[in-house]
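Board notes (copied after class):
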Amino acid sequence: MSLSGLGDTGKAEPPPALFPAPDSDAPAPARRRGGQPQNGPPRNGSVQGDDAGRQLVFFGAEAAEPAVADLAGLLAGPGEVVRMGGTARLSVQVDAAWRVHVLVAELAARGLAASWEPTEGERHAVRTSYTRVLKPLAAAWLHGSAKRPPATFHLTGRRLRLWLAAAGTPEPPDACLLRLGADDQECWEPTGVALAAAGLAGTLLGPADGGPAYRITGRRRLARLAELVGDPPRAAPPEAWPT
């Protein structure tokens, strides 16, 4: 199976208009196993105010430089982290080629080499190398082998941007679905609390209702989400990002 814009040979193929090839001036490239570097730049937009218009957004996507701590946004969703000795590796499965482009570039912007490969069900696995850089993140989120947010967990614009890029789906006209890890029940409730604290209170959908996921509804909440995550990445289809 060929990933749009990332050919099976490892060489870039002319991508469909829906999945534009990443810019050549993107951050450090990542490689598909046995392939050539692939890039995909994140593009952040401006953030202005909260959903009630009463205070500034202090945690929008442009409020700080990219940091490894932002990857907590992937772990709030379906991302996984595993430890090996004094190192750790983060991985996430996604359902579209544009998500691969965006996540590889976001990881590179944080100094993390990444690879990708196709998986079952026309999905794609994006993963970092094992690195000591991710050890603190793994220590905070892993309790034995179970993933659970630390007590201090909160959602910023950059964390939400990564979660949206990995597993977010707008549902016009006034909803957005943020998917969770199917086996991460211990994460679901505290993640909902963090969403509410960010002004994005959502409804938890169980597996029987098309989840697990949080559905964010209402124009004001969607405007808040759009403010926090910034402009869509270049590789994202217009309908795949809240505006």
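Comment from the instructor: The radius of gyration is 17 Å. The first strand starts at residue 30 and ends at 31.
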